[in-house]
Write a structure and sequence with these properties.
By secondary structure, the protein is α+β, with helices and mostly antiparallel strands. 27% of the residues lie in helices and 37% in strands. An eight-stranded antiparallel beta barrel has the order 1-2-3-4-5-6-7-8. The relative contact order is 0.16.
Length: 156
């Protein structure tokens, strides 16, 4: 059975829209350098833990500072080592590796992956971030207000 010309045009249009949206949604990996992760991030997805609290992290040099919604405090300071393909979380003496993940870095997020699943962090921008609180440019109260707004938006 032959298709009417108008149906062929619609199919071509739909096909072009699908191809264009696929192209636009492609993420391109960025090269990982020693300071690639510096900045503020929030936990977008975690398939390793069955349940997890909203958290924000600030990465500065070779330490990851983790602020959890469950207690509104910096809960962990985790030293790490980063190479071109892996992120290694280190013990307190920075000699022992506690865990490690394959890492992929994109424009606004990074993905940690191992045999158990993946963890995705997305970049945060603004002036009420954990790094602002840590460097003393804002108070804990101002940071908490910004954190609460981001938390509420994340759980909507």
């Amino acid at each position: 059975m032959l298709t009417k010309p108008s149906n062929v045009s619609r199919l071509k249009s739909v096909f072009l829209i699908v191809i264009a949206s696929t192209f636009l949604n492609c993420k391109s990996k960025k090269e990982i350098t020693p300071n690639s992760l510096n900045g503020d991030w929030y936990l977008l997805e975690n398939t390793i833990a069955e349940s997890f609290d909203y958290q924000e992290v600030s990465v500065k040099e070779d330490n990851l500072y983790i602020f959890l919604s469950s207690n509104y405090a910096i809960s962990f300071v985790r030293p790490f080592h980063l190479d071109k393909t892996r992120l290694y979380f280190l013990g307190e003496t920075k000699k022992d590796t506690i865990s490690n993940f394959e890492i992929s870095l994109y424009e606004n997020e990074f993905v940690l992956q191992n045999s158990k699943g993946k963890i995705v962090y997305r970049k945060i921008k603004g002036d009420t971030l954990l790094s602002n609180y840590m460097d003393g440019s804002i108070s804990k109260e101002i940071f908490d207000e910004g954190f609460t707004r981001r938390l509420e938006k994340a759980i909507e």
